[in-house]
Amino acid sequence: MIEVMIQREKRTDAGGERFVPRSIVIEGHAGYADPGYDLVCAGVSAITLGIANAIVSLTGTDAVERIGKSGYLHFALPEHLDPIVEEKVILLLEAMLVALQAMAQEHGAYIQVNDSLEKS
Questions:
Q1: Would I find Ribonucleoprotein among this entry's keywords (predicted)?
Q2: Is residue 120 part of a domain?
Q3: Is residue 34 a part of any domain in this protein?
């Protein structure tokens, strides 16, 4: 099973209180099908690597902390970003999470999303 673990940080600004993704770890293999034919793994890879590339291309920031073997990918919101760049990175990370949560709704036996602070 693929596990997505999200740690959020509470932020308060002019817009009010919100919880932004501070760290996102994706790890494991879906086991939906044999390697090379696993559409759930392929979908997760496409979503996560597409967002990783989009963050670099659109913001000039690398939010990938670590890529490892066995389907391990760790995103971390970098410290001390320009506020405008930070908002773009947060938006792209949230977009990735929306796509991963949609996959989990369709394929819950193969991917699980655990959010440290559920948004209300």
A1: yes
A2: no
A3: yes
Task: State the residue range of the domain holding 51.
Answer: 2-11+18-115
Q: Is 66 helix (H, G, I), strand (E, B) or coil?
A: strand
Q: Which of 114, 99, 11, 102 is nearest to 54 (CA)?
A: 99
Contact yes or no for 43/51 (Cβ under 8 A): no
Exactly one of 29, 74, 80, 107 is catalytic; which is it? Answer: 29
Per-residue pLDDT 10s for the chain (120 aa) are 999 999 999 988 887 899 999 999 999 999 999 988 999 999 999 999 999 999 999 999 999 999 998 889 999 999 999 999 999 999 999 999 999 999 999 999 999 999 977 554
Is residue 29 among the annotated active site residues? yes
Domain count, the chain: 1
Q: Where are the beta strands (DSSP E) in the chain?
A: 2-13, 16-27, 64-68, 72-76, 111-115
Give the pTM: 0.91
Alpha-carbon gap, residue 46 to 63, rounded angstroms? 16
